[in-house]
Amino acid sequence: MADLAENASPAAVTDRPVGGPLVVLSGVEKHFGPLHVLQHVDLTVHRGEVVVVIGPSGSGKSTLCRTINRLETIDSGTITIDGRELPAEGRDLARLRADVGMVFQSFNLFAHKTVLENVTLGPVRAKGVKRSVAKDRAMELLRRVGVADQAHKLPAQLSGGQQQRVAIARALAMDPKVMLFDEPTSALDPEMINEVLDVMVGLAREGMTMLVVTHEMGFARRAAHRVVFMDGGQVVEEADPETFFTAPTSTRARDFLSKILTH
Ligand SMILES: Nc1ncnc2c1ncn2[C@@H]1O[C@H](COP(=O)(O)OP(=O)(O)O)[C@@H](O)[C@H]1O
Ligand SMILES: [Mg+2]
């Protein structure tokens, strides 16, 4: 966990303006049996905006991400991406999935395919991109995340930080409109966290729309336009990172921050 004082540099990299709404959740409700995991969630992520979602374990952060690319259905409310409501199934759903890149805590790479194949496969299979074109683009992305020299290895031969950067490249290969990151550094050894966060900051600088579940406050301060605090399936509070970390208004956010800042 990053220490707040160590990351107190005030200059956010994201002073650039953001565009219109890209991902819009409106009155979203979700139950798992009797458990009300998303309680009337309203959340808008604008084009080019970086939103960090923070909150205690079990507060619904992963479920929120999973509903946005329809890995989970919702009970009621609406979710639109670029003005279009999430399709239920079929070809439209596949297209939507291509619009939403997702990076998980566990890297989820195909274990028996090389790094290069991992990044090439999606565009070839789901978008019908020619293999040679997809390969060139994959190499370009692998260079961008700093692992081009690992292209012909299997994932298990890479460090966790390298694997997670491959996972980012793989998501980017689909040319997503928005990238979702669900605790992308939580499974990494401490010395590998920054190499992944640096890639994410780079993406943020380039204007990628991002929803990032993370407790890395250094990242939030460097790259987020907005912090959204969730607790008990609700969006309890949202603010710019400086305001949120220095002057949270809700008791629940203050309690949470005091816990993560003191251990
Ligand atoms: N597939 C599922 N079936 C039943 N309960 C689930 C399922 N996925 C998550 N939950 C529960 O929903 C709540 C929210 O989980 P999650 O979205 O993973 O929270 P977070 O990511 O904030 O830790 C938790 O109580 C969790 O146990
Ligand atoms: Mg989670």
Automatic annotation (TrEMBL):
Residues forming the ABC transporter domain are 23-257
**One Pfam annotation, family name?**
ABC_tran
**Superkingdom of the source?**
Bacteria
The family classification in the record reads:
Belongs to the ABC transporter superfamily.
Q: Its principal location?
A: membrane
PANTHER family tied to this protein: AMINO ACID IMPORT ATP-BINDING PROTEIN (PTHR43166), GLUTAMATE_ASPARTATE IMPORT ATP-BINDING PROTEIN GLTL (PTHR43166:SF9)
- One GO CC term, this protein: plasma membrane
Membrane topology, from the record: Peripheral membrane protein
Q: What keywords were assigned to this record?
A: Amino-acid transport, ATP-binding, Cell membrane, Membrane, Nucleotide-binding, Transport
What catalytic activity does the UniProt entry give for this protein?
a polar amino acid(out) + ATP + H2O = a polar amino acid(in) + ADP + phosphate + H(+)
Per its record, how is this protein called by name? ABC-type polar-amino-acid transporter
EC number from the UniProt entry: 7.4.2.1
Cellular localisation: Cell membrane
- GO MF, one annotated term: ATP hydrolysis activity
The taxonomic lineage of its organism, from the top, reads: Bacteria, Bacillati, Actinomycetota, Actinomycetes, Micrococcales
Per the UniProt record, the source organism is Cellulomonas biazotea
